Amino acid sequence: MTRRTEPRLDCLCYRLYERPMHPELFDLRGQKRFTPNGFEASVWLADQGHVIAVHHEELTLTEVFIDPACDLPLRGRLEGWYPQGEKDVDRLYCGRIRYRMVCQVEVMRPKVYATMHKDTLAKGQTRGLCATFPERISAEGVVPFSWLDFEITAHSLHVFATHALPGELTMLKVQTLIDLP
Predict the structure, then answer these.
(1) Which of 174, 175, 128, 173 is nearest to 156 (CA)?
(2) Which of 88, 171, 55, 177 is nearest to 124 (CA)?
(3) Model's pTM, two decimal places?
(4) In whole angstroms, what is the distance from residue 46 CA to residue 67 CA?
């Protein structure tokens, strides 16, 4: 078995789609589906990434953070970029769905990263969806992980995503809020 390389920030890209995605496009590590008050929401923890989808009436909005080498369709793509620094997206989709997302790349000093990694992983193992990637352990012996925490109400989905990239002493933090009418 070949050792997979440890994850890097340049191995994650952001895509926003106005269409559903098929689960077979991703190596899923966990998933949750919700159907409150006439809409459907899905949260998928993928191989060192995530997918968030909301379906309301005939509308679908899907956020994807995944390896850019993943063969994703071009049809229905609204935007896409590589995470750097901090980025905000705020859009009203079809005049009815408010999509807000804040993406932040945090590069830390080794001691700060070690503490943040330990605390975040411990919290992730108690709630939401969390996956570690021991096959991608860093040269320092730190295990990468992804954690999705979420809150759902009758009219909104709020997701907090953390992707730990120990080889770069980096955490990618994404906060997504989708409000429905």
Answers:
(1) 175
(2) 171
(3) 0.92
(4) 10
pLDDT at 83: 95
- Residue type at position 137: I
- Terminal alpha carbon distance of the chain: 50
| 93-123 residues labelled b (16+ CB within 10 A) or e (exposed) | beeebebebebebeeeeeeebeebbeebbee
| Count of residues in the chain | 181
Domain residue ranges in the chain = 9-179
With beta carbons less than 8 A apart as the criterion, state whether 158 and 102 touch: no
Note the pLDDT tens digit of each residue in 90-147.
999 988 999 999 999 999 999 999 999 999 999 999 999 999 998 888 888 899 999 9
